[in-house]
Design brief:
The structure holds 2 protein chains of 2 kinds.
Chain A (H helix, E strand, L loop, with lengths): L14 E7 L3 H11 L9 H6 L9 H16 L4 E8 L21 E13 L2 E11 L5 E10 L5
Antiparallel strand pairs in A: 1-3, 2-5, 3-4, 4-5
Chain B lengths: L3 H4 L5 E8 L2 H11 L4 H4 L1 H5 L31 E2 L1 H14 L5 E10 L8 E16 L2 E13 L5 E11 L1
Antiparallel strand pairs in B: 1-2, 1-4, 3-6, 4-5, 5-6
Classes of the chains: A alpha+beta, B alpha+beta.
Chain lengths: 154, 166
């Protein structure tokens, strides 16, 4: 785990430590099994095509969990995620597999964020952030917001 | 204008479920996300850490109690009153010209940690159904709110999920 972040260390406009992610067909199948979302839109290209999305698309909920990890990594073990939201504004398509364990060349996604506000309420030390996922072209496909509490040096 | 067949579902229950937060399910979930946080993986580490045991990542409430969106993948034995009301609503939306639904997003409020071994009760309600004009034609936004409590009766989280139907 990274070193614990304290509320005093954070300023408005600070960057949340970026988190790179790579969606692959393999990851989508794992996510289907782990989340219980067996919609074939996410693993069957013919079905996805018939639904008008081209080929299999990344689950919105998987992108949600990437953004949640962005926050939990950044706030550390003593930080607490209080509120979170995201919108699946644009679709993302996973890299296909080249071998059983290796994906084809392709996009890497970046989860990013920025501190928009810091404040104290009922003795808790809060930060609000804008968060988002950028695809390989740098387009924001998944914008959101998060509120967390951090430990204070007091 | 949405028909009564659609709007009558506003305020209705959209399912309830009880699920255990199993260690193995937490690990499979963290593996699928590719999240190596030892609070989800390493029991020895977690025992001496903030929560005293493995926890579930925020957003994981036990498999398959993920009621806030879509019920088709739920095991009927774990779920009460969901399938029928959602089936009706799905049919009514299709009838109204909105046969396809996509996950639109989610809002969470987290109130207390979810530990491995917790038994969570989830209850979903259809909060709103709204028709809007978009750039690519009209769409319906369906908002389902799910409330999660743990075995001690403590409020764990509230999720508000939006699905977009066209």
């Amino acid at each position: 785990m990274a070193k614990q972040l304290y509320w005093e260390d954070v300023k408005v406009d600070d960057e949340v430590t970026p988190l790179p992610k790579m969606a692959t067909s393999l990851m989508l199948v794992k996510w289907a099994g782990a989340s219980g979302d067996f919609n074939p839109l996410h693993y069957d290209d013919s079905f996805a095509s018939s639904q008008g999305v081209g080929s299999r698309i990344v689950h919105g909920a998987l992108k949600r969990q990437w953004l949640i990890q962005l926050m939990t990594d950044w706030i550390g073990e003593q930080g607490t995620l209080k509120k979170f939201s995201c919108r699946y504004r644009a679709m993302d398509w996973p890299r296909k597999m080249a071998t059983t364990g290796t994906p084809e060349e392709g996009e890497t996604w970046y989860c990013r964020g920025k501190v928009t506000k810091k404040y104290v309420e009922d003795d808790e030390h809060y930060v609000d952030c804008d968060i988002w996922i950028e695809n390989g072209k740098g387009e924001v496909t998944t914008p959101g917001t998060a509120t967390a509490t951090l430990p204070s040096r007091g | 204008m949405l028909s009564e067949e659609v709007t009558k579902h506003i305020g209705q229950g959209a399912g309830a479920a009880v699920a255990e937060v199993e260690k193995g399910a937490i690990k499979r979930f963290a593996d699928a996300v590719d999240d190596p946080n030892p609070l989800y993986w390493d029991e020895e580490y977690a025992r001496h850490a903030r929560y005293g045991s493995l926890i579930a990542p925020p957003g994981f409430f036990g498999w398959p109690a993920k009621l806030s969106r879509g019920a088709t993948f739920q095991r009927p034995t774990d779920v009460s009153d969901a399938a029928e009301s959602r089936g009706d609503l799905g049919a009514a939306l299709a009838q109204a010209g909105y046969p396809r639904g996509l996950d639109g997003g989610v809002e969470y409020e987290f109130f207390c940690p979810v530990r491995a071994g917790d038994i969570l009760s989830a209850k979903s309600v259809i909060k709103d159904i709204v028709e809007r004009e978009g750039k690519t034609g009209s769409m319906v936004f369906l908002i389902v709110e799910t409330t999660y409590h743990n075995q001690n009766g403590a409020l764990v989280a509230i999720a508000r999920a939006t699905s977009i139907h066209r």
